Amino acid sequence: MKQSRSIYALALAVMTAAGSAHADDPVPLRQLLSVVPETILETEAKQFPLAATVDLATARRLLPDGKGTMSKELMRRLSAGGMIRPLSSWWRYHDMGVWEGQVAVAPTEIDAFVGYNSPPQEVAVWFLRNDASAKTVFDDLPNRGFTAIEGGMVANGNPGAIDIKGRRPGDPWRGELGKTSVVAREGRNLFQAAFPPVVAAARNASTSNITTQPVVDAVLRGAESLSKDGTRIVQAFLSSPIIGFDGSMPILEPKTVDEMRKKLEEKMARDRATGLPPYAMALIADIDMPGKGHGVAVVFAHLGCDQAELGGKQFIKRWNEIPTFMNGQTLAQLAPTDAAARTVPGSNGLCANVVTLTSRTPVAGADLANRPWDVIYNAIMQRDFVAAVMAPGGR
User: How far, in Å, CA of 188 to CA of 17, rounded?
Assistant: First the structure.
């Protein structure tokens, strides 16, 4: 979803008015997002998400044996992978044989993926376990039809081209449309996109990345507070306030002008009374709590801890009480959870509102589904995430 800087700037204006880890350890979320350039705050603000992350090192721990062969059940859970180009082939087709056959290392050598930007400018960043693993994958690409191009990159066709005859569903380098991949390596990372300039910009993101921005730092501090409870983040979406701009309309029966006016007035009054204080950034994380369960953490960057505290209370109220537009049920009815909120101070006067939604349904056997995550993901895609709606006019 392409967006000018207007919505992001508007949200800020409204608010103003109102180390190196062990090889088997997951990659910290802050480190994953440090490959994302800060320019997306201006160019992608209307898009959901700003960035998506999938932590395969953590995801593998959900498997009974922790092995690298990813089960279909686990890939179904990793819906954020559908927004990251190389993982989308895996996620959509569940064909691990094709995918693994195109990568020169075992899945256990791949720690995580990050994706950002809208097609055709989308970027995927691979986090291999170490430099040697990344080099092995990169050096093997000529065996997969890649040739060297400028800037130390390789490509498997003309940059930006789509070759339907060369399509290969399940292949991380070609995919269902036969898109050309341009790939570069920097240390443990592989950068994959359709155009050399986009790859070059991605390689330089570390000098000016999104985590240096106070609003992103605030939600990251909120997410990092979860680790004190032993919580692990499996996948996550970073989003602008777009998820808080309610695009839904009330169901109108009968469909008369007077009834429409009444329903809209009721909705506006309800949102004014129960909507969240303005926020400038949000993070939605699929969480696993070893020995305790699973669920979702939703983190918002508010202007001050008083607003963050109110935001937590309002989110939980709306989660439990406000019906969705699509089916008339509350989000709590769709995904029964135990909800709790906390505040975490950030920098520049910002404060994170951290809401955890813990599923009451345990994961059993091969069933790795995370119902609260699925419900929130679907609600966002349908512009119906009623729990995150901001109060009209701020507070």
Answer: 43
Sheet with 123-128: list strands edge to edge.
Answer: 147-148, 154-155, 182-186, 189-193, 123-128, 110-116, 51-55, 232-239, 279-289, 293-302, 351-359, 337-345
Nearest 5 degrees, angle CA 25-CA 30-CA 33?
110
- Environment class of 243 (CB within 10 Å of its CB; exposed 0-12, middle 13-18, buried 19+): buried
Cβ atoms < 10 Å from Cβ of 107: 16
Alpha-carbon distance 198 to 307, whole Å?
38
For all residues of the chain together, what is the average pLDDT?
85
Alpha carbon distance 344, 236 (integer Å) = 19
Any residues with CB less than 8 A from the CB of 17 and at least 6 apart, and which? 394
Our CA dihedral for 258, 260, 265, 271, rounded to 10 degrees, sits at: 170
User: Of 211, 178, 241, whose CA–CA distance to 9 is shortest?
Assistant: 241
CB-based contact 195:153 (threshold 8 Å): no
Q: How far apart are CA 189 and CA 47, in angstroms?
A: 25
Give how far Cα 125 sits from Cα of 53, 87, 105, 355, Å: 10, 11, 16, 28
Cα gap 131→146, rounded to integer Å? 20
Q: Which two tokens stand for residue 20?
A: 């190196």
pLDDT tens by residue, 168-222: 778 899 887 889 999 999 999 999 999 999 999 999 887 789 999 999 999 999 9
Q: Where are the alpha helices (DSSP H) in the chain?
A: 6-17, 29-33, 40-43, 56-60, 72-77, 85-93, 96-101, 131-140, 196-203, 214-224, 257-274, 305-321, 331-334, 371-381
> How far, in Å, CA of 172 to CA of 153, rounded?
17
Please tell me whether residue 239 adopts helix, strand or coil conformation.
Answer: strand
Widest distance between CA atoms in the chain: 68
**Mean pLDDT within 211-237:** 94
pLDDT at 228: 85
| Confidence label for 111 from pLDDT (cuts 50, 70 and 90) | very high
What is the predicted pLDDT for the residue at 94? 58
Q: Give the whole-angstrom CA distance, residue 394 versus residue 17.
A: 8
Query: In angstroms, what is the C-alpha Rg of the chain?
Result: 21
